[in-house]
């Protein structure tokens, strides 16, 4: 199974092989991204980290920042 990922603001697009039943959190761990530092979108809607991924999904991962 594969998912297509676009990372914002890095402007990086890639396809990632996933196992059946893999969650967003598992994908983020594999990409070495902390779930509190990103927002994952499918279409225009954010999805929770416990959401299971499906084959051929297109996801956007937005890097978030905070500070003053």
Which properties best describe this structure?
68 residues, mainly beta, Ubiquitin-like (UB roll), 5-stranded mixed sheet, 1 helix, globular
Class by alpha and beta content: mainly beta
Please compute the radius of gyration using only Cα atoms.
11 Å
Largest sheet properties:
5 strands, mixed
Number of helices: 1
Q: According to CATH, what is the class? A: Alpha Beta
Number of distinct beta strands: 5
Task: Using the coordinates shown, work out and report the CATH topology.
Answer: Ubiquitin-like (UB roll)
Give the overall pLDDT as a whole number: 93
Globally, the shape reads globular
Q: Tell me the name of the CATH homologous superfamily.
A: Beta-grasp domain
Strand content: 35-45%
Q: What is the total number of structural domains?
A: 1
Order of helices and strands: EEHEEE
The quaternary structure here is single chain
> What strand order characterises the main sheet?
2-1-5-3-4
CATH-derived architecture:
Roll
Helix coverage percent of residues? 10-25%
How is the secondary structure organized here?
Elements: E1 2-8, E2 12-17, H1 24-30, E3 38-42, E4 45-46, E5 57-63
Walkthrough of the structure:
This protein has 68 residues and is mainly beta. The chain has one helix and five strands, in the order E-E-H-E-E-E. Strands 2-1-5-3-4 form a five-stranded mixed β-sheet, with no helix packed on it.
